[in-house]
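Single-chain item
Fold in token form
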Amino acid sequence: MLVTFINLLRKTHNKYFSKERHFVERLDNVLGFTPVHVQLFKIAFYHKSTINNSLQTEKKNHVLQSNERLEYLGDALLSFVVGEYLFNKYIQADEGFLTKMRSKIVKRKMLNFLAEQMGLDRILMEFNQANLSPSMMGNALEALIGAIYLEKGFIYTRKYILNELVKKYINIHSLENFDDNYKSQLLEWCQKNTKEIDFRVISKSKNDKRDRFRIGVYIDGVEVATAEDFNKKSAEQVAAEIALTQIQS
């Protein structure tokens, strides 16, 4: 009872009197509740590439934290909740179908889309000096889920993932027959047409202290497409999609 009362006081302070009240208001719009532990949710938006002077000043006696640990926690929660949801929804489906469906929902591209729909990109821009990449939005969403879990517990987090993410923004039925594994499609095409295919790292550079990969797709030794991304697998998928467009046109 005492803890509940103290948390109520902290929420009231955070919402109306704290110097973070603008951030708290933004969070309230996204989450549907006023957080008790504001600092926890601030960490969810700090990417590892960012050196933020305001946070260093505020926490000068503490270690500067990125959102990586929260991202790890949120990733595990998201994978489990989505997996359980699909298991109960498709009672006749086999393991292969369920795995593919879960992959389509929790993949980086989908998380980036969800984060953008929620408006997390605008909050990220306030917290990070580095240029935003699409993957940073998905990372922040996973970190936010981790923060929600630590603040509200599993039951609330599960409801939030299902009601505010999956059911609100994702058309599950349209995903059933949608194949977005372009690398797999390209490999199958090459096998069917007796072509040799190779994905090569053309270059690897640093951008905002992060590795950026340039991937080339070579069919029978000829470069067909290239793509860049901070994630090697994502770059391969984009390059494969471009290559498929080229060979099918």
